[in-house]
Design goal:
Elements lengths: L10 E2 L2 E2 L5 H13 L7 E4 L7 H11 L3 E6 L5 E3 L19 E4 H8 L4 E7 L2 E14 L4 E9 L4 E6 L6 H24 L10 H23 L19 H12 L2 H6 L9 H11 L1
Parallel strand pairs: 3-4
Antiparallel strand pairs: 1-2, 4-10, 5-6, 5-8, 7-8, 8-9, 9-10
Helix pairs in contact: 1-2, 4-5, 5-6
């Protein structure tokens, strides 16, 4: 409503912001990034909500065959075989799809016994993963895709890629890396506080999210340059790596230390010093 009313608080750089759906925003951002990598294959890794023609078609139209999609398949998605190219010419246009193979869940049950073990670098270490791969036709994207069924003890997931050159290991590793992005969103929204912004101005909202992303990036750069690996404050079984909150605690502790005060000028003491110290302790 505010955008349609062309309110002053909906202006960015003096221009009124036009309404865009999530898919339209995603397409625009990917195209902006792709302009810096001309002639290079681009793989978009996303969840099943974005893994459809609403994202893929406009990207292919704008960027061509250099862009590929890697996403998760829904269990009820129907898959088809690759159409056979016959030597005999029949009237009408050639078939785009072969025979119906079944739903993703039906094929998972059929392929479970034929799964192979792959050595995949996943979540910080090499793991053995049982998976099965097959190239099929996907009607939602209207193109051939490589589907990888990953089988766990009691569950399974199906991942697909429009880039048929990718190996099974690469498809699993790329999709597994997506969860690092999910944790990054959590850090920016909850730990940094982006979701708690009280701004009502479009430009202020953009500035706030940019500063939040910058703050999270600086914290991780700081953590990568530490000589010793930080100790995890909240122990979790099976996890040895440190968390984002551990880095925040180290930075807050360092900012309140005598060494930090020795570097900073303490001659001009501000009346808000105690308040700033309280904020730093809260951050830690």
């Amino acid at each position: 409503k505010a955008i349609n009313a062309k309110s002053d608080n909906m202006r960015v750089a003096g221009k009124v912001v036009s309404f865009q759906t999530k898919l339209q925003q995603a397409v625009e951002m990917v195209i902006q990034v792709a302009q810096h990598f001309a002639g290079v294959d681009i793989i978009i890794v996303c969840d099943s909500w974005f893994g459809n023609n609403g994202l893929f078609k406009p990207l292919r139209t704008k960027l061509g065959n250099f862009v590929h999609l890697l996403s998760r398949l829904r269990s009820n998605t129907v898959l088809y075989s690759i159409p056979k190219i016959g030597s005999s010419k029949k009237p009408g246009r050639p078939k785009k799809y072969g025979s119906r193979l079944g739903s993703c869940a039906e094929m998972a049950a059929a392929f479970m016994a034929y799964a192979s073990t792959y050595h995949v670098f996943l979540y910080g270490k090499y793991r053995e993963v049982n998976a099965y791969s097959q190239i099929v036709m996907l009607k939602t994207l209207k193109c051939p895709v490589r589907v990888v069924w990953v089988f766990r003890k009691t569950q399974w997931i199906a991942i697909f890629s429009t880039d048929l050159k990718l190996s099974v290991e690469q498809i699993i590793e790329y999709y597994g890396a997506r969860w690092k992005i999910e944790s990054g969103f959590k850090e920016i929204k909850q730990d940094i506080g982006s979701s708690k912004s009280q701004t009502r101005n479009a430009q202020a909202v953009i500035n706030h999210i940019n500063f939040s992303i910058m703050a999270a990036t600086i914290i991780w750069i700081y953590g990568s340059r530490l000589e010793n690996i930080p100790e995890r404050r909240h122990k979790v079984k099976g996890r040895n790596s440190f968390a984002f909150s551990d880095l925040r605690h180290i930075i807050a502790k360092s900012a309140l230390s005598d060494d930090f005060h020795a570097v900073c000028n303490q001659d001009n003491k501000l009346p808000r010093k105690s308040f700033l110290e309280a904020l730093l302790r809260m951050v830690g």
